[in-house]
Amino acid sequence: MRCLPLLVLLLSGCGPLVPESWVPAWADIPGAETLGLTDTLPEAEREEVPAAALAQADGEPALFLRWGGRQALAVLAQQSGENRMWRSAGGVVVATDGARVVATAGLRTWLAATRLDGPDPLDEPLLLDGREVALRRQVDLMRSDRSPEGMRFGVSLSCRLRGALVQPEAGPVALLITERCRGGGESFANRFWADPQTGGIYRSEQWIGPQGPMWVEVVNPPAS
User: Fold this and answer.
1) Are 7 and 110 in contact (CB under 8 A)?
2) Is pLDDT at 43 greater than 50 in this prediction?
3) Which of 76, 113, 127, 178 gives the lowest tally of CB atoms within 10 Å of its CB?
4) Would you say 206 and 190 are in contact if contact means Cβ atoms under 8 Å apart?
């Protein structure tokens, strides 16, 4: 079993904790977590990183995040190999392992932990072109108030990933990896866009709990 970083609880004896000072109570988070960006994006711009976000990143490793009508720029705060933590000015924290979001904090519902049964197929995206691969994982979910009744530990998900080359209306050919998951009363599909030559994943839409998906766009990639 591959154990990935936890944001708030050290549930499985692995992974770092995020400092408590990084994660404010939900009531302390500004209503529009935008760093000066608009609260929502027009449909025509939903797949483009706003120029304001590019300017604010100022060359630093950063992700542009969108979820539930809100958006934020999150900069790299901590890194250990492929395990990274990203933090926005308003206190939204996202932990990633490679391209996969494995934990979140600072939202109404947090993805507290992710555990994979075996290697992550996303570690080698090019091998998914035209192939389907199964993956099982468990996730822990909790509400921001950390109340016991809002905690769900060990939610088991059965997933299948498949890649295919796609040609967007604008832009170069991409390798689109679709991951369909079911379990624990949930059913959803994640999507990852990768460079078909290098396998680098630069854009994704990922389930982060019952609140729905988070759109993740690489503004400036981190050093390997």
Assistant:
1) yes
2) no
3) 127
4) yes
What pLDDT, in 10s, does the model give residues 62-94? 999 999 989 999 999 999 999 999 999 889 999
Beta bridge partners of 84: 79, 96
**Residues with Cβ < 8 Å from 136, sequence gap 6 or more?**
116, 117, 118, 156, 157, 158, 159
* Inter-residue contact 49 to 41 (CB < 8 Å): no
The per-residue pLDDT for range 106-157, each reduced to its tens digit, is 998 999 999 999 999 999 999 999 999 999 999 999 998 888 888 999 999 9
DSSP 104-142: EESSSEEEEEEEESS--GGGSGGGGBT-EEEEEEEEEEE
211 confidence band (pLDDT: 50, 70, 90): confident
CB 207 within 8 A of CB 190: yes
Specify whether the CB–CB gap between 54 and 43 falls below 8 A.
no
Q: Which band of pLDDT confidence, cut at 50, 70 and 90, is reported for residue 4?
A: low
Q: Among residues 77, 209, 223, 76, which one has the least CA distance to residue 155?
A: 209
Q: Which of 175, 39, 107 is nearest to 50 (CA)?
A: 39
Note the pLDDT of residue 74.
96
- Alpha-carbon distance values, 215 to 30, 137, 157, 224 (Å): 20, 21, 20, 22
> 169: Cβ–Cβ under 8 A, 6 or more apart, which residues?
none
